Amino acid sequence: MASYEQTFLEQITHLHGQDFSSWQGWQLLMDWVKRQPWRLEFFGGAKIPARMLHPPTLVMELTRFLEGAPAAPEENSPDPQT
After folding, report:
1. Of 35, 67, 23, 18, which is closest to residue 43 (Cα–Cα)?
2. Measuring CA to CA, how many Å separate 71 from each of 23, 34, 51, 67?
3. Which of 1, 5, 32, 35 could pair covalently with 21 via S-S, beta carbons 3.0-4.6 A apart?
4. Is 64 strand, coil or helix?
């Protein structure tokens, strides 16, 4: 994982000393996200998207979300150019 993402998420979550690209770090980060009032907006609904089960993807998308960057397009969403 990029050190920027690791440092950024540690500062936001106060979960220091965890490697968020590991399964243990993923579980702690996911537990933290589930307690946040914006979790439904982040997940796009009540269910956790399958892509979030991959630790580096959760880290990347959570970092983008918390920075206010546009979310990555869904794989099954219609092509906005058509």
Report:
1. 35
2. 23, 18, 13, 10
3. 1
4. helix
